Amino acid sequence: MPTEAPGIVESCDDCHALAPPLPAGVNPRGLRALELWQTDVTQIAEFGRLKYVHVTVDTFSSAMWASAHTGEKAGDVIAHWRQAFAVLGIPSAVKTDNGPAYASQQVRQFLQLWGQRSNYIGKDIKKRCAN
Fold it and tell me: Cross-referenced InterPro entries, in alphabetical order (predicted)?
């Protein structure tokens, strides 16, 4: 069934009005809003103490939430997701890299509490998708 989805989207005139067809790749996207989020953290030195900017993107709608924090530990990730849940809604799954905060028991428990799945992607895939 997953292999049928591209054909269905390709043949749907209404789907083309919303967005161009996506190329096949290694970075899966949701087929509806709130199905799959991707999240990561970056550093912006100009932000001073709040230089750790956590960013979450809904892979279907491209809706995004970013928040600045003092770190990139599990507590910072959870604080960011609480804000994102309040603004964007609650996703079915969150895709992250396998960094220490995302792989921590505290983050896993938080996601389970909210009924989430966590999908880890390797850094090599993230680099290819960024290019």
Answer: Integrase-like_N, Integrase_cat-core, RNaseH-like_sf, RNaseH_sf
